[in-house]
Each structure stands twice: as C-alpha cells, then as structure tokens.
Amino acid sequence: MRTATMPRLLGALAVLLAAGCADAPRKRTSAAGGVDAALVVAARPAIEAANADWLTAMRSRDASALASAYAETAVFVTRGGQSIVGRAAIERYYRAAFENSPPIVDGGLVEDGIATSGNLVYEWGHGSYTIEPTPGAPVANSGYYVAVWQADASGAWKIVRYLAL
User: Fold this and answer.
1) Is 25 helix (H, G, I), strand (E, B) or coil?
2) 18, 65, 116, 130 — which has fewest CB within 10 A?
3) pLDDT value at position 33?
4) Please, which contacts does 77-85 make with residues 24 or more away whose CB atoms are closer than 8 Å?
C-alpha cells in the first residue's frame, strides 16, 4: 500500500508547489532530494508541538487550537479536494466539522518523513482517529498527509500548505 501511495504523494507535492510555494524566497538551499539539517532543526519544535497537540485539540473539538498551526494565508486541501484558504477559514472548517461529528475517542499522527527545499520544510506522514457514533461501536478513520512549513516574518514556523490524502 505504501508503494501505491508514493505517486500520489509526489503528485500532491507538485500541486502544493504549483499552488504558491514555489515562489517562496530562498534563504537556504539543499542538494536535490536532500535535507537542510539546520532548517529542520529550526522547524522541528513547531512541527512536534502541532503533532503532539493534534489529538487533544481533536478530542476537545478546539478548532482554534488546530488552526493555530496554520499561516494566515495557508491553503488546506481536504481528502475530498476542497481547498480552504486562510487560517480563519480553516478554523471555521474544523468548527463546522465538529458540529456534525460524533466524539473522537482516540487517534494520533505519525511523521513518516521530512525534506527541505529553499526555505520550506515538507513533512509527510499518516494519522488516524476513532469516533464513536454509537456507544460501544467505535469507527476508525485513517489517511496520509503532507504539510509544508515556512517561517513567517517573526520567525514562527507555520503550515502554509496542507494536503490530506
């Protein structure tokens, strides 16, 4: 299954670049397919915090906490292909999703890899969550994701593009 997903992942990265990341200013460079270790070290605390806080925010239905990892002009692409533009719109999306969703009882994110290009950090992985639409009858959901991180003017690392696969 992992092999079948790689072409989708690479295609998703191309879409993310075409959606506006390609013209990001270049502060650092890395070899083709390489990783700029200093860039990853700089971004790592924000990535780890967002991933660690994800399940708590999902379980408590905290749309604001989930959206806080995103840049003001971020683009979030849902599994269904809907593009949501801007942190405020992403927060509204989560808030609406929580209104129509049963309780989230478990889940987590796992980072599968990381790469850099210019001043961007690409993180990809997989996640899952379990809902309980009927007491005692849990339903698991899972999927892959790609997040593109960039430092804003203040130096804070934020997600500028996110694709749920």
Assistant:
1) coil
2) 18
3) 56
4) 77/15, 77/161, 77/162, 77/163, 77/164, 78/164, 79/143, 79/164, 79/165
The H-or-E segment that residue 145 falls in is strand 137-151
Quote the CA–CA distance of 116 and 113 in Å, as a whole number: 11
**Cα distances (Å, whole numbers) of residue 95 to 4, 9, 60, 64, 120:** 33, 27, 11, 8, 28
* Separation of alpha carbons 13 and 94, rounded Å: 23
Produce one character per residue of 11-20: b if its CB has 16 or more CB atoms within 10 Å, e if not: ebbeebbebe
Q: Which two three-digit tokens encode residue 128?
A: 């899952």
Residues 6+ apart with CB under 8 A from 140: 128, 129, 130
